[in-house]
Amino acid sequence: MTNQTIKAALVTGASRGIGAAIAERLAREGFAVVINYSGDAKPAEAVANKIEAAGGRALMVKADVSDANAVRGLFDAAEAAFGAVDVLVNNAGIMKLAKIEDSDDVLFDQQVAVNLKGSFNTMREAARRLRSGGRIINFSTSVVGTRLETYGIYVATKSAIESLTAILSKELRGRSITVNAVAPGPTATDLFLHGKSPELIERFAKANPLERLGTPEDIAAVVSFLAGPDGSWINGQTLRANGGLV
């Protein structure tokens, strides 16, 4: 198979949790997957090995999405390996919770750097370099709707992502590239479950009408839909994947 016939998906923050599930799902759908990570390589290696063991193609690339030069290098590596990028999934993000009055400058700056500037960096690069007919899939959060205390700065970054999603979808007119966002509700990842009591987890699970937490695979299925041919008419939207929570 030549680079011209390979469809490639670049997934940021793909070494764990939802990102890993997305990478594995898109690999099963036939995409060559670029597994972006920013820290420890071992979890990324595990995802790549799983994809390749199933007959898929994977490339690991370390890059801090908050660094515009690193993002350019990330796309360079993807193009060198697979010829072009067809799908960008902006999954990388951090969540540090505190009341607004208790939030220091470091907490604010870190979340804006990764969640907002990081997504902006990759969106900008994708807008310049994505192949015609491609997909940009950003990540918001359903807390934009529930507006829980202590989530203020995190939600502010994600609200901005929803606005950028809608605007970029219009700016890419004529290139058959769709731009959408996925807004998960509480999802059973190690990051979400860590430090929470069984009672609190149960409360989160019962909050939506389906009375369970989401799974990384639930979210990966939504991304797969948006990345595939059946999602081609969805554009400029935010899909709230939360079991009916909000």
Helix content: 40-55%
Low-pLDDT stretches are none
- Record field, number of beta strands: 7
Second CATH tier, the architecture: 3-Layer(aba) Sandwich
Q: Please give the oligomerization state of what you see.
A: single chain
N-to-C SSE series?
EHEHEHEHEHHEHHHE
Predict the CATH topology: Rossmann fold
Cα-atom Rg, whole angstroms? 17 Å
Euclidean distance between termini CA atoms:
44 Å
By secondary-structure content and strand pairing, the structural class works out as alpha/beta
> What share of the residues does DSSP label as strand, in percent?
5-15%
Q: Looking at this structure, what is the CATH superfamily?
A: NAD(P)-binding Rossmann-like Domain
What is the overall shape?
Answer: globular
Number of domain modules: 1
Order of strands in the sheet with the most strands? 3-2-1-4-5-6-7
- Name the average pLDDT: 96
What composes the largest sheet? 7 strands, parallel
CATH class: Alpha Beta
Task: Output the number of helix runs.
Answer: 9
Q: How does this structure look, described?
A:
The chain has 246 residues and is an alpha/beta fold. It has a single domain (3-183, 217-241), classed as Rossmann fold (3-Layer(aba) Sandwich), CATH 3.40.50.720. Helices cover 46% and strands 14% of the residues. It has helices at residues 17-28, 41-53, 68-82, 105-129, 143-146, 152-171, 190-193, 198-206, 216-227; strands at 8-11, 32-37, 58-62, 87-90, 135-139, 178-184, 238-241. The chain has a seven-stranded parallel beta sheet with strand order 3-2-1-4-5-6-7, sandwiched between helices. The mean pLDDT is 96.
